[in-house]
Fold this protein.
Amino acid sequence: MKRWLAIFWISLVSIGAQESALSLTELYQQGEDHFFAGRFKEALASWDAEIARMPSRDPYHWQRGLAYYYAGEFEKGVKQFERHQKVNGNDVENAVWHFLCAVKQQGGSIEKARKSLIPIQGDTRIPMKEVHDLFAGKGTVEEVLKAAEQAASPLYRRNQLCYAHLYLGLYFEALGKKKKSLEHLKKAAVDFRMDHYMGKVAQVHFKVRGPGGTE
């Protein structure tokens, strides 16, 4: 037993030494690599180390909020998105992820989470207004999709539909409708695949929640 404890502590010291040798940029990138590989707790460990070195980074670190959601640390997620709201006040996505964590934190109560849905003004990205209305209980799935279909070019349309289906998938996940959720997430991750950050979030979500996933 003592031998195994010694090995365990040596491993911890080694990991700590490796992290301390990394720059802030490297710690962030390490966390991002873990996140997109579906290793959410490891992503949090890297990003926690990053923030420990530069605490002023914390309120800007919405990526850590996403990792909290997937790691099942919903209360921490709620607080992370509340801190982010103070430095980024017109982002519908922040309000939605705060809502998603709040639903889980409150035992699946959509009604309670809607009472604390962060109001957002000024997010002009399509279809973010319709997404916010949907989560607020004032809009419909059809309105989100109709808005996303309107675009000046095929690339813009693809991007808008990627976002639309990502948030529709998350909406149905909050409602506990797994099959419906995965139908939309597949469209975001595969049919309208985009390789920017939130496009990759859709892909990792479908990977871990979908057929053959780890959850």
